[in-house]
Amino acid sequence: MKKNDKAKNQQEEVVDSADEAQAADDATSEAATEDAPQAAADTATSAEANENAESAATDNSPEARIATLEKENADLKDQLLRRAADFENYRKRMLQEKQDAYDYGNANLLKDLLDSLDNFDRTVEAAATATDVKAIADGIAMINKNLVSMLENKYNLTGYGAVGDEFNPDIHEAIGMQEGDVEKEQLAAVYLKGYKLRDRVIRHAKVMVVKPKEN
After folding, report:
1. Does 59 have pLDDT greater than 80?
2. Cα separations in angstroms, 57 against 61, 85, 191, 215
3. Structural domains counted in the chain
4. In a domain, 190, yes or no
5. What tens digit of pLDDT does each residue of 171-190 get?
6. Based on CB atoms within 10 Å of each CB, which residue in 13, 77, 139, 146 is the most buried?
């Protein structure tokens, strides 16, 4: 009876050992299955890193560097040509504007003078059949007054030169001189009025000057 119990115990130990071995094999297989995706990912990452390294090595090659420099050079040339074209267009536009200012700069003044010219035409037509000379003279005086007012108020043109004014060689042109009972040189007669545009003399007054008598 003891022999049978001993044999049975040995048989159970063998079964237990076999079960433990099978369990160990199953655990190893399961662990390998779980680690497979991670291993695949590690392999892919390594391959990508190698590819990037090869790409970087290629980009830093002399050929790639030359190609990059050639592209940059082409871009700079294109920018230079565009700016040169823009400057040329600007230069032509400035020249045209300058020429227009020279050709048409007096257009506003001439337009304002047209009213006075029209009034002179009407006065001339009226004078052909007029019997009242004073009316014609008054009409001409009115035209002159309006013209002077327009030039003074709108264009800052002022006339100067009147008998009795002190003589100033900077603004007066003496075409004759005589002695008289005066304390300082002054205008005895004005043959042609002078004109200023703002503070600049654009025509000197032509005058006769009287100066103090010499003792």
Report:
1. no
2. 6, 41, 95, 109
3. 1
4. yes
5. 999 999 999 999 999 999 99
6. 139
